[in-house]
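Chapter summary example.
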Amino acid sequence: IMDWDDTIFPTTAYNILKKQSLQDDFWNFIDGNYGKFPVLSGFVSIINKCISDTYNFMMQQINENNSIILIISNGNYQWLTQCMNGSKIISKLKSVQKLQTAINDENIPIKLISAKSEFVEHLKPSYSSNKDVNNTNNNGNKCKTRHRMSIIRKQTAFVKYLKEIKSKYDNETDLFCVYSIGDDDSEFEASKISMNIVFGDKLYPQNKNKDDPYLLIRHKLDIDRENAKTALQSILINIDSFHSWDKQSIIDIILQNEFGQIVHDTFVD
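The structure predicted for these 269 residues follows.
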């Protein structure tokens, strides 16, 4: 399960570059001749590498481990489309085209899901209609409410799609393994809650349900949002950390724990 913003798509860097660029027409160049924008063209090359490396990681997991990829975002579908098609220069990148093709191909197990669009009913009671939360003197409460709603939306999406996958593929001899990757606390918290809902309320490590085991690896990313360069460098470091996980890593975690419901947390420093 992967997040979208600053995990697959380098949103922070892209938005910073668009705000900093006075040449708005740069983002609509389609002939590849960046001319007087050499610095921006260099950033575009790095954006292309970020998306390409993440795409290659997903395809590797599919081809080598028979993985199913769920991309679950708290952005709406309009935003997700805008990221890939909002500028001609981004939409023409080979990495973006490959990603879009894979998402649209029913034979490739990559699904792009907007938790915000699909589960908007779980916003109620809405922070947008709560006078106390929206009061300028209650910014802390407003942020907490948004964070809580973000977790609820992702949790609801996780549960729905994990149940579908479990019912279709799981059997008594399999260990259900979920690798949750993202830079925000919402997926970090929602993934564990969701696994407890799907597999029962046995919380690791207090109680382990040996009849319905699972392994949840929660991989928390770190994004340096000081500027576009640091944000992109963070994503490249994060992508390298993805590849540290292979079958042997998973086997090692299982061997280090009693077979049951295992939650293993890792962080990118």
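To summarize the output: Residues 125-137, 202-210 have pLDDT under 50 and may be disordered.
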